[in-house]
Amino acid sequence: AEFVQRHLDAIGEGHLPWKTVWTSVYRAGAMTLDSYRHGRVVFAGNAAHAMPIFGVRGLNSGFDDADNLAWKLAFVAKGLSDAALLDSYSQERIAAFHVNAENAMRSTEFMSPPSRGFDLLREAALSLSEKHRGIAQLINPRQTQAVCYVDSPLSSGEGDAL
Ligand SMILES: Cc1cc2nc3c(=O)[nH]c(=O)nc-3n(C[C@H](O)[C@H](O)[C@H](O)COP(=O)(O)OP(=O)(O)OC[C@H]3O[C@@H](n4cnc5c(N)ncnc54)[C@H](O)[C@@H]3O)c2cc1C
Fold it and tell me: What is the pLDDT at residue 157?
């Protein structure tokens, strides 16, 4: 409670009334299902995968799941493609999970250094970044980027029959 009040004071909101409703220990972790398709059931968003919150990739990757899945569902529903097309959704988005999780963990290590080494790197990068653009690159950008589905059956040619 003391920490929260101090933080509210620091951001100029300390005068507002508040009370603790619920607390728990947050652990930054990344996890995924082994497959996002189980027959006629498909998983997307946090039901399929979880990211550390510092990486700002949780909701973003949920949107990407929906974007990937929507046209495939439409194709299958309209009879334009075999239901096996939905397997590529799972393969592509699990590959994306690994890219996103790696970046999210790097952001997490930067924002919440797990050891003195990460702490030193952050201090050095932040103090030098204004004058040295090269060093600024060490600050892991929190923006998401498009993920290339290099190993997807749709982009390798193996998915031609779908
Ligand atoms: C503090 C915090 C900060 C975050 N910041 C970011 C950010 O900056 N950028 C970003 O991209 N992501 C961020 N995230 C992650 C993001 O919020 C989640 O990844 C996203 O909300 C997941 O969306 P979802 O629809 O998959 O799942 P949810 O948002 O969890 O939605 C699932 C819904 O299903 C409901 N539900 C559960 N069980 C049942 C049931 N049995 N019957 C009916 N309904 C049920 C739940 O009540 C909930 O409304 C943050 C998360 C947290 C906690």
Answer: 58
